[in-house]
């Protein structure tokens, strides 16, 4: 057990925080949703029913949408721009650094990731994998947000 936590501690803690915050979000939304129903003369719904409503799904995916857009923008912008003193930004006056090496120069290195060894379009996707991943997560959350918003409205 200790080895599992040592090797995966970041994932375990972040997943735990995520689940706690999602639970808090759902409980707060549940009470607000039922208050709104009571204000309109309708009976309250059980918690498990609330979790399947468009209102809950829309509020969750709306938050995800904004976070993925923010992180994707941050990743792309920090690739192009510099900020003096920022730990997220390279020093523009430091010259080339090890991280700036071209992956093609390591295509024969047996320790290089397989996309680097493969090259071509696989390497192109690998080079942009963080930006593409965040873009796909944004598009996924945008789509679910739109569908859930339509469901909540109807």
Give the radius of gyration: 22 Å
Report the structural category: mainly alpha
Order of helix and strand elements from N to C terminus: HHHHHH
Number of domains as seen in the coordinates: 2
Structural write-up:
With 154 residues, the protein is mainly alpha-helical. It has 2 domains: 1-51; 53-83 and 110-154. The chain contains 6 helices and no strands. It has helices at 2-39, 47-50, 54-80, 114-118, 120-127, 129-153. It is elongated.
Task: Kindly summarize this structure in a few lines.
By secondary structure, the protein is an all-alpha fold. The chain has helices at residues 2-39, 47-50, 54-80, 114-118, 120-127, 129-153. The longest helix has 38 residues, at 2-39.
Layout of secondary structure:
Blueprint: H1 2-39, H2 47-50, H3 54-80, H4 114-118, H5 120-127, H6 129-153
Helix pairs in contact: 3-6
Overview features:
154 residues; 6 helices; elongated; single chain; mainly alpha; 2 domains
